[in-house]
Structure formats: structure tokens, C-alpha cells
Design a protein that fits this description.
The structure holds two protein chains of two kinds. By secondary structure, chain A is mostly helical. Chain A contains 30 helices and five strands. In chain A, helix 13 runs parallel beside helix 16 and helix 22 packs parallel to helix 24. The chains are: A mainly alpha, B alpha+beta.
């Protein structure tokens, strides 16, 4: 072998070796691309595992591109090529990386040396998305076109479109015989000819360079006003802001409002129903995604739309009602309940706003959420929501009260009492049968607020027989006197019984205080009976009752009460005497004070 | 500090600096454009030119960052500076158009400026660009050769990708245009049969049309002179799509918006599928009942789009457009909304394109025929309440004083068709015209002449437009010339 032959041989070997090295590098890159995509199908992009793969892929690509400036990959159905050589293959179409590009008509994929990490990540995301979607809902070429990467480009010729569109339809192309264009003659009108002559004569007398100006004069009346077609700086800014504001429009907002307009415009009930069905589908999609703000927006808009039809279209109103009913059916509510368990704090208000739109039927769900809720913040909001819904429908509120749910039930009782509506009394009456003490107490307080209502009082009276002393006390404290002699006689009889003295001090006080509020002579007399020397037996109980009676008479302030107190001044017991005297003084001083105030 | 450490330090410092902003990128391109334009008029040592050159050089130096050079890259329809996409708006769209044209003319894909570039070298480069009009097949090679001869070492050019080198292929554009019509036909047919329809194909089609629009807007606009091919609605929808895309491009919409706009325009008359043909094709005036029916087509269209199985792949704006393309700026027109007060930007764009194409298309119910020029004038005068005034202005500007497809009488006695508008504002009345008759009125399939051409001795224009003519009067079918042009390409 001559020197020159040896040199040439060595060059060939070198070239072959470097070519093989390059191919190996490409194979590694594509292998890594495949692995990275597999990782990303399982993990999110930020996952350390997936990130490690994408970083690795970037490094490999960058290394290659730094040396060779670009990477050009040929795309076949199930394999990638480099300079005609198969460098990666995957024959299982459903997971094949080459096929994901091939199916949409891509033929070559290019990577350039300036490739940025972000570009690569976005590119990977597009691939991932294309793997996730069903084939008829994805087009990787279209996605890449919209991304318009600087350093990742592709070649996908238009004839691919031809293959899709032309399937099953006749050719739509159209051609012209060029000969047809050069056959015949046209004859200008005399006016046209005159114009040419005029023009020639003007030009001949004009100086060079002034032609454009004159040209405008010649044909000005036929021309478009160019002055008014150019935009001023202000107009340009306005135009840019118009485009900007269009970008800020939320598609969901716009879509909801479009739906409402379409429903408003549609006169055919079949079409109206069809559109409502799609709207319902949209609503379900938003709910599934946990986007309760949009769900709220839809239901709220539908309610508004319903109002706009008031009286004019009964059929449309009926269909809307059916739509709204669907939102509250068991299936929908159960889905909402499931979603509520995964709710973020930031979504609570939107979630509740949506539920509010659904009306009283949502109250049982809300009550469950309230009872299960551990966060005060969450519960406060649910409660407000319950209150707002309940304002409009007390019977629905009563459906969610339960002996086992004292906290919520108490809130509901409090809400009911605030309404001051007589209808609520029958609901309050039902609490007398509850075993839960706090609930009963709250019901008694609520009943007590109906001061001028005899029915409320009668209901309260039912609590006086409660086995719980605390309940009875509270009932007496909230009881009002309506000159019902039978009722008063019952209490007087009870007070006159020997067992009365044995009762708890607080209960006795409550009963005697109630009697004092009656200002009744018989009641006074029954109280007076307790003011006497205590004797030996049950001395402390008697003392206690005696002082409670003095206090009751002091509160009574009737002539009979004052007389009873004065009569009791003669009692031997010093403490009782002093208590009576002090009560009389108190009454007198109060009277004097009142006189002064009134004069 | 070792060299590596120094390099690393400088890298970190540079990274900390904000990457060149979009405004700065546009400014750089603008200065490039200015220097190029001035170099066409002035000598190399002229102070106006030198001033622009200095500003340009400073901007290039600022843009040179980590890799010791800055690069300007032309991808299919986008320009990048240092790999960052430059976003053009309406006010600076012409600069993009200029760069795109100049790069493509020379088959340049990337232009890189090295940090050692000086004023003298940049000056030579600009003059080389402006003086040499390269349109040959070896444009790129020749350009490189010239650069070498001029001693330009610190500016390098890389070629366009092989598939991008292909000049805007008019034949393909034409094919795509008719493919669009076929696609819509197929779409409507499937819709009637209640079969599943993929809007991905539509989106791909729109993207391809847009690619052609960037390469050869004039030709695509010329194709919109094709009327009533395979029925009014199909052809009209395609024309409206092309016109809307061209307008959207000028308004600086991004790619996602462009694709949405195209799909919206494509389906804007979808509701006409529901209107009986006897009403659509009625020759006389519509009676009240018929009018009520036809005025329902926007709502029908919007409903159809909503109901399309692939609802999520129909942009919401397409529903806007279908519903709103007959609503005026002052909420006149139809349908009458219940609550909605605003009209979507895309509806405003499509409304203009729709109106223009409808007006310039022969319709059985209309006696008056509008030429393209007349239609624009009519819209300008009468359309204040109908159209968004700013978008209308952009549209009129885009179409030009003599819109593409206008039949014109030249001062030579020749008759021609406007094939390409002139983007230079002072040459606005001097478009490129395809000659269709000689000075004696004999029909010819003539060449395309540039009306800015002057006689070298007298410096007088070779040809000027005298007036526009009504093609029907002279039995000239304008669209045939565009189709023939495509067939011949």
C-alpha cells in the first residue's frame, strides 16, 4: 500500500469510526427520550425522578448539538432514522414514540444547537399530552405549530392534509386553460380612452418627480381615502389594547354568557333541550374538576335566564326547572359530597356559593359537612351558608335538626327564633321531645323571645314538666304570664305542696320569680306563706325558701306584696326581719326615684 | 482567578442581566430596516446613514451575550433573536414582513453577528444587502461569496432549512384553497349525517393556509377572487377564512389566536346548513317570514358548534363568531342579545371579512355588483356603525388603494389585474400588476409588472394606473388569472 493509499484508508477508517460514534450518540439520545417520556407518563414534570431523566436527556442533546450543531431525525411509522439508518424503533403503535409523530404527517424532526431546557420540557409535555389523549383528539404537528419553538422544528408537508381530506370525496381542484386567457379582445369605453389621453398630456407637462402628487388628483374621486386608513399613534395603542383585552377574556365566562344568549334566542324546544343538555354536561365537567366558581356561574345564570322568561314561555321555564332539578339529584349531590372531602381552603367560598344556588335541597349535605368539619373556618362558612338558605325555607331547616347534632341544631334554633315568625313555634315545640339538654335549652330561649305569644308560652309550659331540673328552671325563667288562672292555680298548688321546699334553690327561685311577675294576689299569698320562722326541721331549706320569697315579693311590688313584707317585720328571726325591712326600703327608694324621674 | 472561573463568573453576571426584551428586539430589527432603507437612497458616508448604523451596531452589541454572538433566526413564520421569539404587533408588522422577505430572497435562515463586528463591516454588509437583489437559484451561495469578497468575517449566514427554501408555492396554495372548500363540504355532509367530525384537520388546514399567507399573502388574497365555487357558502367561508387570517396576522395575533381565528372564520356560516335552500338562493327580495328564518342562522350555527361532539376542540370564539358576525358595533343587526353587551374581537374581524366577501360576490338577490375597490369604499363610508373603526382601517390598509384582484386601466392603454400591493406607503398606488391585455385591447396572459419601474434615462414611470375597471363589463374573470398563475408556477 502506497503512502497516499494508506492515508486515504486511515481517513476512511477515522470517518467510519466517527460516524459510528455519532450514530451511537443519537441512539442514546433517542433511547433517553423514550425513557423520559415513559417516566413522565407516570410522574409529574417536577417529580425528581422525571426531572433526572429530562435533565439527562437535555445534557445528551446539548452535548451532541454543541458538536454537530443540529440533529435531524427522520420519522417512519415505527422507527426513527438518521441518514437513512434505523436509530430507534418501537413497533407497538399505542406506545410508539415514532408513531406519535408519524401519524400526524411529520417526516423530519430537527433540534438546533441553541436548544433551551424550557423548550425541551415544553416539547416533552406536548408528547406526553399526545400520548394521553385518544388518537382522534390529538395532533402533535398542530401543537408544535402553535408552540413555534426556535430550536425544535419539524417538516410535515401539506400533502398529508390532502390524504385526510380527500378520503371519500371527489377532487375539488380546479384548473384554467391558459390559452383561454389570451383569446379575444376588449374594447375600452370612450371615457376610458379619454382618460388615457388626459393623463398623457398631464404627464408630458409635468416635471419629473411630481407625478405621484398629480396622479392622486387625476383619480381622487375614485380612490379609497388613504388618510383615513392609516392609524394614528393613539389609534394604534387603542387597537393594541383591544387585542390585549380580548386575550384577558376568560373562555369560561364567555362561554357561559354565550350559552345563555343562545338559550334565550332559541325558540324550538327540542333544540333548547339539546343545548341545555350540553350545558349540563359542561356543568358536570366543571364540578368534576372541582371548579365550583364556574359551576356557580352556570347555575346562577340559568336562574337569571329563567326569570327573564317569566310568564312568556312556560315550556322553557319547565325545561329550566328540570335542568335545575338535575343539579340536585342524588347522583349529583353524592358527587359533590365526594369532592367536598378533597376541597382546598381557597375553594370553600366558591363551593358554598355553588351549593347556595342549589337551594334548600342541599341542606342535608351541608349539615353533614358541618358535623364532619374539623376546621372552624370551614364550619363557620358552612353555617353561614345554611343560615342563608334556611332564611327562605324554615321547614327545610327543620329537616336537618337532630338530637345528635346539638351544635348545628342550636344554630338553627337561634336562626329560627330570629325570624320571629309564628310558624316557627310548631318546630320549636318539637324540641320538647328531644333528649339533648343543650338543644332543649336553646329551644326554651327561643320560645322565650316570643314574649307576647300565648302559644309560645304554652309550649314553654310543656318544658316545666321536664325531668331535668335545669330545663325546668330555664323554662320558668322564660315563661310569661297571660292571666291564665288554671295555669297559675297549678303552680300555686305546686308551690303550696310540702315537697316544694325540698326543690333546688335555683328552681325555687325561678318558680317564685315567675309568680312575682304575675302580680297576682293569690300568688302573693302563696309566696307570703314561706316567710315565717324556720323552726327546727329542714331549717336551711326553709331559710332559703323564705329569703327567695322575700326577694319575689320585693320584685312583685304590689300593695299585697308590700303589706306581706310589712307584716313579716314582726317575725322573731332577726335575719328575716332585716331582709323584709331591707326589701321594703328598696321598694320605697325605687318608688321615690321613679317619682323624681317622672316629675 | 483561572480562565474557567472568570468565564463562569461572567456567565453568572450575564445570566443575572435581563435577557433582551421584545421591545429591544423590535428596535434592533427596526434599525436594521432603517439602515437598509436609507442605504438605498444615500451614499455610505452620509451622516443620516451613519447615525442609523451606529444605533444598530450598539443594539447588536447589547444583544450579544453569553455565546459571543447574537443571532437572528427565521423559522417558518417567525423571527427569533437569540432564540427568543419576537412578537410583532400591528404597528411594527411591516418590519417583520421586510425581514422575512429579505431573508427568503437570499435563502438565509440564520444571521449571526460576532462580538468583534465593527461599523465598517456592518456598513459593507448593509450595502451588500440593499444593493444586490438576489433572486437566482444560487442566491445563498452567491450571497456568501459576496460577503467573503467584501471581507465580512464577523457576520455569518446559515441557509434556510431545505423545506423552507421552497418559495411560496402558488400551486400548493391553490391546492390548499380548494382543499379547504372540500373539507368544509365534507364537514357539512358529516354534520348532516350526525357523524363524528374532527376539528383537528380544520386546525391543521388553517395552520397551513397561514404558512402560505406569510410566504405569499398577495397570492392568497388573490385567490379570494374565486367566487361561488361549489356553492356560495363553501367558497365564501374559505374566502372569509383567508381574509380573516390575513387581517389577524396584521393585527399581531399569536399563533394560538390565529388558529382559533381561522377555525372561527371557517365555521362562521355553519348555521346556514339549517336554512332552506329556496330561501338562500331566492332571487328576489326576501319577505318578512323568510328574513326571520335567515336571521336565525347565527344562532343555529352557534348551537351546531356547541353540539359538535368534540366540543372542547372547537374554540369558544368560534361560537362567538358564528353568533355575532351579523351584530354591528352599536349592537345593530342580528341576533339581539338579552344581556351580553360586548362583541368579541374575532367576531369583529370576521364580520369585516364576511361583509367584504359577500359584497364582492355576485348574489341572485342583489342587482348592484361591487368591485373590490367599491366594496372597501362602501364599507369605509357606510360602515361606521357596523364595523370596529380601527380594525376596518387595518383591513382597508391591508387591501390597499387598489385591492388585489382589481382590474385596472394603465396609462399605456394596457389593462391589468393587481396581483400584489406595494407595502411602501409612498408607492401605495403602484402595485404589481399582471397584464391581461395589450395596449390595443388584445387579451394576453401577460407578465407581472411592477408599477414602480422607471425608464432609466427619463426616470419616468413606465406604467401608471388611470382607473379601475369593472371586470364583468369586459368579461374578464379575475380569479382565472390567479388560478392560471398557480398552475404555471
Amino acid at each position: 500500500m502506497t503512502n497516499s493509499n494508506l492515508y486515504s484508508f486511515n481517513r476512511k477508517v477515522e470517518k467510519k469510526n466517527s460516524g459510528e460514534k455519532q450514530i451511537e450518540q443519537i441512539k442514546e439520545i433517542l433511547m433517553m427520550l423514550g425513557k423520559t417520556i415513559s417516566q413522565m407518563k407516570i410522574f409529574s414534570f417536577s417529580h425528581p425522578g422525571a426531572k433526572k431523566f429530562s435533565d439527562n436527556l437535555y445534557d445528551k442533546l446539548k452535548n451532541y448539538l454543541d458538536k454537530y450543531l443540529k440533529l435531524e431525525i427522520g420519522i417512519e411509522e415505527t422507527f426513527f432514522t438518521f441518514q437513512g439508518e434505523n436509530v430507534y424503533s418501537d413497533e407497538k403503535l399505542n406506545r410508539s414514540l415514532p408513531f406519535i409523530f408519524f401519524k400526524d404527517g411529520m417526516q423530519i424532526l430537527f433540534f438546533y444547537k441553541e436548544l433551551k431546557t424550557e423548550e425541551l420540557l415544553e416539547f416533552l409535555e406536548i408528547i406526553k399530552k399526545n400520548f394521553e389523549l385518544p388518537p382522534e383528539k390529538r395532533d402533535i404537528v398542530s401543537d408544535l405549530w402553535e408552540k413555534d419553538f426556535a430550536n425544535i422544528r419539524y417538516y410535515a408537508p401539506d400533502n398529508f392534509l390532502e390524504t385526510i381530506i380527500r378520503v371519500g370525496i371527489e377532487s375539488a381542484d380546479y384548473s384554467i386553460d391558459p390559452k383561454k386567457l389570451s383569446t379575444g379582445k376588449i374594447k375600452l369605453s370612450p371615457k376610458g380612452k379619454k382618460k388615457i389621453e388626459d393623463r398623457s398630456s398631464i404627464i408630458s407637462v409635468l416635471e419629473k418627480g411630481k407625478e405621484i402628487e398629480t396622479e392622486t388628483k387625476v383619480d381622487s374621486k375614485h380612490k379609497i381615502d388613504t388618510q383615513t386608513t392609516s392609524l394614528s399613534d393613539k389609534e394604534t395603542k387603542n387597537l393594541e389594547s383591544l387585542i390585549d383585552s380580548n386575550r384577558k377574556i376568560s373562555p369560561e365566562d364567555e362561554l357561559t354568557s354565550l350559552f345563555m344568549e343562545i338559550l334565550y334566542l332559541e325558540k324550538r324546544s327540542s333544540q333548547f333541550t339539546a343545548t341545555l343538555e350540553i350545558l349540563e354536561q359542561c356543568l358536570q365537567d366543571f364540578i368534576k374538576k372541582g371548579n365550583f366558581y364556574r359551576a356557580f356561574q352556570i347555575v346562577n345564570s340559568v336562574q337569571e335566564l329563567k326569570q327573564s322568561f317569566s310568564g312568556s314561555s312556560k315550556k322553557k321555564i319547565r325545561l329550566i326547572n328540570e335542568f335545575l332539578e338535575e343539579t340536585r339529584n342524588r347522583k349529583s349531590l353524592s358527587m359533590i359530597e365526594d369532592l367536598s372531602k378533597r376541597l382546598n381552603a381557597s375553594d370553600i367560598d366558591d363551593f358554598l356559593a355553588y351549593l347556595k344556588e342549589l337551594g334548600p335541597q342541599i341542606l342535608p349535605l351541608l349539615s353533614r359537612l358541618y358535623e364532619e368539619g374539623k376546621e372552624t373556618y370551614f364550619n363557620e362558612r358552612i353555617l353561614n351558608c345554611i343560615k342563608e338558605i334556611g332564611k327562605e325555607s324554615i321547614p327545610s331547616l327543620m329537616n336537618i335538626v337532630q338530637n345528635e347534632k346539638p351544635s348545628l341544631t342550636n344554630e338553627i334554633i337561634s336562626l329560627i327564633s330570629k325570624s320571629g315568625h309564628k310558624k316557627t313555634l310548631q318546630f320549636l315545640a318539637s324540641f320538647a321531645g328531644y333528649s339533648n339538654k343543650p338543644i332543649k335549652c336553646e329551644a326554651i330561649r327561643a320560645l322565650g323571645k316570643f314574649k307576647k305569644d300565648e302559644t309560645a308560652n304554652k309550649i314553654l309550659a310543656t318544658f316545666l314538666k321536664d325531668s331535668d331540673e335545669g330545663i325546668r328552671i330555664l323554662a320558668y325563667q322564660n315563661l310569661h304570664y297571660f292571666r291564665e288562672s288554671f295555669f297559675l292555680d297549678q303552680i300555686i298548688t305546686m308551690v303550696g305542696h310540702k315537697s316544694f321546699i325540698k326543690k333546688n334553690g335555683l328552681e325555687k327561685k325561678a318558680i317564685l320569680d315567675f309568680l312575682s311577675t304575675t302580680r297576682d294576689a293569690d300568688a302573693c299569698s302563696s309566696i307570703k306563706n314561706f316567710i315565717k320562722n324556720p323552726g327546727i326541721f329542714q331549717r336551711s331549706k326553709k331559710f332559703e325558701t323564705c329569703f327567695l320569697a322575700i326577694s319575689a315579693l320585693q320584685d312583685m311590688q304590689t300593695q299585697e306584696a308590700i303589706k306581706a313584707l310589712k307584716d313579716s317585720r314582726r317575725i322573731r328571726n332577726k335575719k328575716i326581719r332585716h331582709a323584709c325591712l331591707s326589701a321594703i326600703e328598696e321598694i320605697e327608694s325605687k318608688k321615690n326615684f321613679n317619682k323624681k324621674v317622672l316629675s | 482567578m483561572t480562565k474557567t472561573e472568570e468565564k463562569e463568573k461572567s456567565r453568572t453576571q450575564i445570566k443575572k442581566k435581563e435577557i433582551i426584551s421584545n421591545e429591544e428586539s423590535i428596535d434592533l430589527i427596526y434599525r436594521f430596516y432603517m439602515a437598509f432603507k436609507i442605504s438605498k437612497i444615500y451614499e455610505p458616508n452620509n451622516t443620516v446613514f451613519i447615525r442609523q448604523l451606529t444605533i444598530l451596531l450598539n443594539l447588536i452589541k447589547k444583544a450579544i451575550q453569553i455565546d459571543e454572538e447574537t443571532s437572528l433566526t427565521l423559522s417558518q413564520t417567525t423571527l427569533y433573536l437569540n432564540g427568543k421569539k419576537i412578537k410583532f404587533g400591528y404597528s411594527n408588522y411591516y418590519i417583520f414582513k421586510f425581514i422575512n422577505k429579505e431573508f427568503r430572497k437570499r435563502k438565509i435562515g440564520i444571521l449571526s453577528f460576532n462580538k468583534h463586528l465593527d461599523k465598517e463591516e456592518l456598513k459593507n454588509f448593509i450595502f451588500l444587502l440593499s444593493k444586490k437583489d438576489l433572486t437566482t437559484k444560487d442566491a445563498y451561495k452567491n450571497f456568501l461569496k459576496d460577503m467573503k469578497q467584501q471581507g465580512i468575517k464577523h457576520i455569518s449566514a446559515e441557509p434556510l432549512l431545505s423545506f423552507q427554501k421552497i418559495e411560496a408555492n402558488k400551486k400548493d396554495a391553490k391546492k390548499l384553497f380548494f382543499l379547504g372548500i372540500a373539507h368544509l363540504k365534507e364537514f357539512l355532509k358529516k354534520q348532516k349525517e350526525e357523524r363524528t367530525i374532527s376539528t383537528h384537520t380544520t386546525r391543521r388546514l388553517i395552520q397551513s393556509i397561514f404558512n402560505h399567507l406569510v410566504d405569499n399573502e398577495s397570492f392568497l388574497l388573490g385567490l379570494t377572487t374565486i367566487k361561488n365555487f361549489d356553492g356560495y357558502t363553501l367558497n365564501h367561508s374559505m374566502n372569509v377564512t383567508v381574509l380573516s387570517l390575513a387581517l389577524g396576522k396584521r393585527l399581531g395575533l399569536n399563533r394560538n389566536e390565529i388558529a382559533d381565528l381561522g377555525v372561527s372564520a371557517f365555521f362562521h356560516d355553519f348555521g346556514k346548513l339549517e336554512i332552506p335552500k329556496k330561501i338562500l338562493l331566492k332571487t328576489g327580495k326576501l319577505d318578512k317570514k323568510e328574513r326571520i328564518i335567515i336571521e336565525k342562522h347565527p344562532c343555529f350555527g352557534a348551537e351546531k358548534l356547541i353540539q359538535m361532539q368534540e366540543f372542547h376542540y372547537v374554540p369558544f370564539r368560534a361560537i362567538n363568531v358564528a353568533l355575532e358576525h351579523h351584530i354591528g358595533e352599536n349592537q345593530s343587526g342580528y341576533p339581539k342579545y338579552l344581556k351580553k353587551k360586548s362583541i368579541n374581537l374575532f367576531s369583529k374581524i370576521v364580520k369585516i371579512a364576511d361583509f367584504f366577501d359577500a359584497l364582492t360576490t355576485k348574489r341572485p338577490y342583489r342587482k348592484k355588483e361591487f368591485s373590490r375597490e367599491e366594496a372597501l369604499r362602501f364599507m369605509q363610508k357606510e360602515g361606521r356603525r357596523e364595523f370596529d373603526p380601527l380594525i376596518l382601517k387595518v383591513f382597508v390598509n391591508m387591501m390597499g388603494i387598489y385591492p388585489i384582484g382589481t382590474l385596472v386601466l394603465l396609462d399605456t392603454g394596457e389593462v391589468g389585474i393587481v396581483f400584489e400591493t406595494n407595502p411602501e406607503s409612498h408607492y401605495i398606488s403602484r402595485p404589481k400588476v399582471k397584464l391581461v391585455t395589450d395596449k390595443n385591447g388584445k387579451k394576453i396572459n401577460g407578465k407581472i409588472v411592477d408599477l414602480t419601474e422607471v425608464y432609466s434615462k427619463t426616470k419616468k414611470y413606465k406604467r401608471s394606473i388611470i382607473k379601475s375597471l369593472n371586470p364583468d363589463k369586459y368579461k374578464i374573470k379575475v380569479s382565472d388569472y390567479f388560478i392560471a398563475e398557480a398552475d404555471a408556477s
